[in-house]
Amino acid sequence: MKITVNSKRLLEAINLVRFACDKKATIPVLQGVLIAVDAPDGITVSATDLDLFISVPCLATVEAPGSLIVPLAALREGLRACAEKPSLVIETAPQPEGAETAAAASFTCGLFSWRLDTFDEEDWPKLSWLASPIARVNALALVAACNRVNFALSKNAPFAIHGINLEVQPGFIVLQVTDGHRLPEARIAADISESVSQQKTVLLGARASQYLPRIIKAATKATKETVVISSAVSPTPSALSFGHARQPDAQVGFECDGVRFWSKTIEASFPDAQPLFAALTNPKYRARFDTLPMLQAIRAVMGVLDRDPWNTIRLSFCPGTLTLGTPTTATTQATSQIPCDFQGPGPLSVVFTAVCLQQFLEVAASPYILFDTQDGSPALLSPCDAAGADPSYRYLLMPSRE
Q1: Ramachandran quadrant class, 181 (left: phi over 0; alpha: psi -120 to 50; beta: rest)
Q2: What is the distance between the alpha carbons of residues 176 and 190, in angstroms, rounded to a whole number?
Q3: 265 CB contacts (<8 Å, ≥6 apart)?
Q4: How far is Cα of residue 127 from the mean position of the Cα atoms in its chain?
Q5: How open is the CA angle 76-80-82, to the nearest 5 degrees?
Q6: Helical H runs in 257-305?
Q7: Which of 264, 295, 298, 361 has its CA at 20 to 30 Å from residue 59's CA atom?
């Protein structure tokens, strides 16, 4: 194998696929990155930890086709050292007799060169799936939707709900995340495949949920870029387990401009929040307030405490005014008032975790917020403007104890 590639472009590809590389893997080849010639003028850079798989295309001048697997961390450090010199020549050659590895790869960039031992390609997991496209969505819309729900990911959440629940509905993709105390939901328009005859749900793991918007954003070169979402099942159960028998793995894949991101899904039942949303269709109490003053008031009130964002904050509603205050049990008391349009049979007082309110307000991206509740448990918050509530985003929040 011998190719010439732009070192900066290769480094960009390495920086994307490294999210799927396990530097501490007990299986050595999983610490590597696969560089394979798959076109007369291009290569594919891939990495996997058996849970995630990322591949990125990269233009190259091919003199001799082939492929190689080298340690990703070592290759990345070398590329960072020669980032100012664009032309990088990669070549493989047999090792001398008696060497620990059968082949080595040389990397030459101007006067700088280095050499890395390669992994045996027979050890690379056979990553092949029976893919079935289920939807097409706008890339930037998917990135925005992920960012609007990912703030609710929590390390303390049960494994079965630790990730993005992606639900395919007629004409839409719905994303939900919950930690048991809150649930943001984002909805984006989608072109659903005719092969999807009924509602389909997949649950991404936490790592995949965090990396997905980064990968798609990096792959997006135009505002109209499309992401193809596919579901799949590994046809050979042992392919991802190096000979250990197991059930076929359910997968979900995202492809955008040649960049492929695949992840195993969590086999679990995500909590059904629709009854809670339905119960708030005709709320007993409704308030509308400005987003920015509300955010500033939360920061001001919580600033007088120990700055622990998980402290609680009390919201007291009455006609024309919303009063935010520290918990009644706090040794230091503080309040802040903002204007508020409030409708209800009487005053309302409810307590929430401060960070749960603050994080929602920071991603809401709207001038106003609608606050709906029946008797303070739970509350539905929706971004809105002069025309009304935004139907593409809503936030379910459970009250807290002081």
Answers
A1: alpha
A2: 16
A3: 202, 203, 204, 205, 250, 251, 252
A4: 22
A5: 120
A6: 274-279, 291-303
A7: 264
- What is 312-381 written as a DSSP string? EEEEEEETEEEEEE--TT-SS--EEEEEEEEESSS-EEEEEEHHHHHHHHHHH-SSEEEEEESSSSSEEE
Tokens matching residue 78: 């070398």
Average pLDDT, the chain: 87
CB 123, CB 50: distance < 8 Å:
no
pLDDT at 128: 65
- Smallest CA-to-CA distance from 124 within 257, 35, 5 is with 35
Task: Give the pLDDT band of residue 238 (cuts 50, 70, 90).
Answer: very low
Burial 287-318 (b: 16+ CB within 10 A, else e): bbbbbeebbebbeebbeebeeeeebbbbbbbe
Counting every residue written for the chain, the total comes to: 402
Phi, psi for 49 (deg, rounded to 5): -120, 15
The angle formed by the CA atoms of residues 359, 206 and 167, to the nearest 5 degrees, is: 85
pLDDT (tens digit per residue) in 296-323 = 999 999 887 766 667 899 999 999 999 9
Q: Six-digit token pair at 216?
A: 């798609």
Handedness of CA 67, 72, 77, 80 (dihedral sign): positive
Contacts of 274 (CB under 8 A, 6+ apart): none
Cβ pair 72, 124 in contact under 8 A: no
Tokens of 98: 């008696």
Phi then psi for 66, rounded to 5 degrees?
A: 155, -165
Mean pLDDT of 33-56: 93
Query: Is 335 in contact with 242 (CB distance < 8 Å)?
Result: no
d(CA 88, CA 73): 17
**CA–CA gap between residue 343 and residue 317 (Å, rounded):** 9
The answer to whether residues 397 and 357 touch, using CB atoms and an 8 Å cutoff, is: yes
Q: What is the pLDDT of residues 343-380, one digit of tens each?
A: 999 999 999 999 999 999 999 989 999 999 998 789 99
Domains (ranges, CATH) in the chain? 2-123 (3.10.150.10), 130-264 (3.10.150.10), 274-397 (3.10.150.10)
Residue 16 to residue 20: CA distance in whole angstroms: 8
